[in-house]
Specification:
alpha/beta, two-stranded antiparallel ribbon, single chain, 38% helix, TIM Barrel
Length: 330
């Protein structure tokens, strides 16, 4: 007898009835760039995305919630930077003020604070620099741990619901977990950027945050794109053992195999970061008329869910939530 799988694709109702993967606004985490300037500043390399003042970040969080997006992640852009990235852990820092304002005015939104130093250092690296024996510059891992822990505590004190260390320093999750617990923030989860690659897909983000390294590069601490599954599982295991509450893969689209590997090996919630370069590629192709933006975005995000992501950080979040609502998917 001829098998006919097409029977179950014949109508929209049958296709919906037999889907294995769901995509809804509550799966999205909306990224917000917060700066200390007046007004919004569009980001040329990320069409449709802007830097916002604190009041604008509140507006963005409110809009996200109205569309069914329950979480935002904050990235800070200070007006002054220094070698130690002191703006990251300043009690009155831009992320601290934005987190406090959002929790006061839009309490239904979960605020995730990106916990890193690269947006705050004048050299663009994720911690204080030191010289290697070969005369090259790299990040002083253990000095960075202390500053990252201070940053996480200050973010939690300001009202952040989750801290998300992204520096790829060895031991960062353990240092942050210990510091949070000692400061009375045992309830604040850690979302670990567990598997984060030294990727070309970050270019637009570095333009947005002014965080391109002025010396060297991040290949000595972010993961090698040619690294395999063993390295990814080792990094994820270390973060899980140190107390991570979430694991993340960044970027997502070129590393769906790593998403699947983590899903099969860990039972922690898994986050995919649909990064700036992935966003800008689709935007550029859509603006040139090469691709249908709506269909491409929803297919891409569905692929990340199918690979195992429980949540997706994506600059498409607001548009995707609107499209899903129009389709009756939310």
């Amino acid at each position: 007898m001829l098998e006919r799988p097409r029977r179950l694709r014949r109508s929209a109702g049958l296709r919906a009835l037999t889907r294995e993967v769901s995509l809804a606004p509550h799966h999205f985490i909306h990224p917000i760039f917060v700066h200390e300037e007046e007004g919004e500043t569009p980001i040329a390399t990320m069409p449709g995305v802007s830097r916002h003042p604190v009041a604008g970040a509140v507006t963005q969080a409110r809009e996200a919630l109205s569309l069914g997006i329950l979480s935002v992640i904050l990235f800070g852009i200070p007006s002054q930077k220094d070698p130690q990235g002191s703006g990251a852990y300043a009690e009155g820092g831009v992320i601290q003020r934005a987190a406090a304002a959002i929790k006061a005015e839009v309490p239904g939104v979960t605020v995730i604070a990106d916990t890193c130093l690269c947006e705050y250092t004048d050299h663009g690296h994720c911690g204080p620099l030191c010289q290697t024996g070969e005369g090259d510059w790299t990040v002083d891992n253990d000095a960075a741990l202390e500053l990252l822990a201070r940053t996480a505590v200050s973010q939690a004190r300001a009202g952040a619901d989750v801290v998300a260390p992204s520096a790829m320093m060895d031991g960062q999750v353990g240092a942050i977990r210990s510091a949070l617990d000692a400061a009375g923030f045992e309830h604040v989860p850690v979302m670990a950027y567990a598997v984060k690659y030294a990727s070309a897909y970050y270019g637009p983000f570095r333009d947005a945050a002014g965080s391109a390294p002025s010396v060297g590069n991040r290949a000595s601490y972010q993961m090698d794109p040619a690294g395999g599954e063993r390295e990814a599982l080792r990094e994820a295991r270390l973060d899980a053992e140190q107390g991570a509450d979430f694991l993340m893969v960044k970027p997502a689209l070129a590393y769906l195999d790593m998403l699947r590997a983590l899903r099969e090996n860990f039972d922690l919630p898994l986050v995919a970061y649909n990064v700036s370069g992935e966003y800008s590629l689709i935007k550029a192709a859509a603006q040139a008329g090469y691709m249908d933006e709506r269909r491409t975005v929803l297919e891409t995000l569905t692929g990340m869910r199918r690979a195992g992501a429980d949540a997706i950080i994506t600059y498409h979040a607001l548009d995707a939530a609107r499209w899903l609502r129009e389709e009756g998917g939310a």
